[in-house]
Specification:
Layout: E1 2-6, E2 13-20, E3 25-32, E4 44-48, E5 60-67
Parallel strand pairs: 3-5
Antiparallel strand pairs: 1-4, 2-3
Length: 70
């Protein structure tokens, strides 16, 4: 589970991008698109469940953020 805080109209969305079993490392990218217009400044919390297919409790988790379309 990942909780982010940000605009209610342009929410952050997490995506599992890598799992390395040998290194016990997982990488998640959290991105936000600018949507169809300006984002509100309401700072709403949102919780996401990221499906990994295994327990990642003992893994090192790397989280990166990306803004915009690219």
């Amino acid at each position: 589970m990942i909780t982010t805080h940000g605009s209610g109209s342009c929410p952050w969305e997490p995506e599992l991008v890598e799992i390395n079993e040998e290194a016990r490392h997982a990488a998640i990218e959290i991105s936000v698109s600018n949507g169809d217009g300006p984002c509100t400044a309401d700072m709403s919390p949102r919780t996401f469940e990221v499906h990994a297919g295994r327990d990642l409790t003992s893994y090192t988790l790397e989280v990166t953020t990306r803004m915009g379309e690219n």
